[in-house]
Input
Amino acid sequence: MTTTARAQGATVWLTGLPSAGKTTVARLLGDRLKAEGHRVEILDGDEIRRFLSAGLGFSRADRNTNVQRIGLVSEVLARNGVLSLVPVIAPYADSREAVRKRHEASSTPYVEVHVATPVQVCGERDVKGLYARQAAGQLVGLTGVDDPYEPPVDPDLVLATQHQTPTESADAVHALLAERGLL
Output
């Protein structure tokens, strides 16, 4: 009789400004991990906000509630052997710390990745047109421009996406997961 080891789960939390490259890196990494046979879920911040957090606004309290909901789902998935990739702005340090503590309480691996793309580069990418709308006075509360973003003080990995390709960024996260024995 052969026994199969239970898959190792973990949360990989990718935080950064809008248009920093979080979702692109998560999708590339997710594809690679799936091809290697890992169980993977991507909890994209925009998708979660539309469904699980529908009705929430962008106040600090609502952003915190959104982050805590995503953190709970991710921790449950990771605790049950899924590699949970979470590309979410998560602008406040205390919200991210609460998610980390939730993972620590259940002895679930948690890796924080700061997608540290400068706001100027994010504005040039402007994937969703948010920076243009903010500049035109049509949007107030854009994270990193006229609403705060508190960068992680001690992330597990910093990605300077303006200096590397999305594939190189995804490879760096993969290498960290391998180094930590999470693959």
About this structure: Helices lie at 22-35, 45-51, 60-79, 93-105, 119-125, 130-135, 166-179. The longest helix spans residues 60-79.
